Amino acid sequence: MSSVADETRARLLKVAGPLFAQHGFRDTGVKTICDAADCNVAAVNYHFHSKQDFYGAVLAEAHQNAFAMRPMPRASVGTPAAALTAWLWWWMESMLHPGRPEWLQTLMAREMAFPTPALDQMVKRSIRPIYNELTAIVRRLLPRGSRLTVVRDCVHSVIGQVLVYKHAAPVLHRLSAMPTYQRGGLARLVANVVTFSLAGIAAIAAQKPSSRSKKIRR
Amino acid sequence: MSSVADETRARLLKVAGPLFAQHGFRDTGVKTICDAADCNVAAVNYHFHSKQDFYGAVLAEAHQNAFAMRPMPRASVGTPAAALTAWLWWWMESMLHPGRPEWLQTLMAREMAFPTPALDQMVKRSIRPIYNELTAIVRRLLPRGSRLTVVRDCVHSVIGQVLVYKHAAPVLHRLSAMPTYQRGGLARLVANVVTFSLAGIAAIAAQKPSSRSKKIRR
DNA sequence: CAAGAAGTCAAATGGCGATTTGAAATCGGC
DNA sequence: GCCGATTTCAAATCGCCATTTGACTTCTTG
Questions:
Q1: Do B160 and A156 touch (CB under 8 A)?
Q2: B34 lies in some domain
Q3: What is the CATH number of the domain that holds A54?
Q4: Other CB atoms within 10 Å distance of the CB of residue B68
Q5: Could A174 and B198 be called an inter-chain contact, meaning their C-beta atoms sit closer than 8 Å?
Q6: pLDDT in tens, A107-162
Q7: Residue B117 and residue B39 share a domain
Q8: Owning domain of residue B59
Q9: Are residues A160 and A59 in the same domain?
Q10: CA pair distance A134, B212, nearest whole angstrom
Q11: How many Cβ atoms are within 10 Å of B18's Cβ, its own excluded?
């Protein structure tokens, strides 16, 4: 409980996020982190028990900083369509905005596709609330008695449209297809995803008047 | 050029795919692979130059087996909507079908999110043709003079809806939201993605009569 | 069937990276 | 300004893993 003591502790936490995000947990050496934080290799094992525990602390810290100063909008705002629009603006800006703590979203994306023991905690703390909120919004856009599987399909379709820019980023770069998130770029992208999603959900809703139905092609 | 000689070579190639898919390149030891293939650790360095080259050979092999016996439908079939439907059936069955060489898609997904030096080759050989084909289909669903960025947004929205089931699988499992790909499950999922995508693209098309336009909300 | 080529093997090598250690330095309260 | 506790440091340790080595076995071919 000293003042100067855990100054390096804080320095480690601050410096590690971007590094883990860029190279992943396995490919980021303790040596590298400590060099960046300008301290000895033993520091991470002294202040945190192990590299794995340290990684967990970084994730927790990042979660605090990100979701505290940028709270998720609740579903109760206006019409269902307005709610989805507002929510998508919030989430896509959180996930894709190039500014500030950009690496947190990258870390989450990384953890999603390549789980470490820290994923369970992250799902409970960060991901499940987001998922539940979107599910609630989508449910209001669908007919009353829609099957759970259909609701989920729509939720996943919305999520996928956003996550693709994180999970397939290396490929999109190689295809020269990575959008620029500058001023206009991100806004245009969000608007398109909103339009696309609202129309998509509406089509699913129209297809199932309420009860069960056979597959509809045409 | 012997007969019994490269029998173990073939055995290594056959056995490594699932292992790499399950644990990733870094976390799959040569020891593990050779145990599974029932041969000595030196084999992989004898038949292929290094572990990295061996991995490249596994990817190439997998590509052959997968896309040779399941060719991609060309865009020229019928109406644009029919083309997208046919193409999505092909791609989603290739990506999500639980049967046979399931691990190839998992390997591709892995490579997308966590590139190794083998990604460049994979993009050129496997991914770019797929991407170009879908782009051609989507372009026919949009107005003549649509901007390239808009076409791309739609392509990515379609891709994302499918990839999410690969890239976010660990999370979806923890959310109890992973769909079952049994008999009816996959068909229903594909049908929903088709409906969702066609409506989404139509909405984007309707929104931009052809020239430029300001952001359209609500 | 001989002899060389090709393949297999157990054991060694070498490097990398997380963790530990024990001594030195710094801090906090008195 | 001193003493015990906390924090830092350079060096050692330890385990893991890809790769090499050199002897041994198995093929091929004339």
A1: no
A2: yes
A3: 1.10.10.60
A4: 8
A5: no
A6: 888 899 888 999 999 999 989 999 999 999 999 999 999 999 999 999 999 999 99
A7: no
A8: 7-65
A9: no
A10: 31
A11: 17
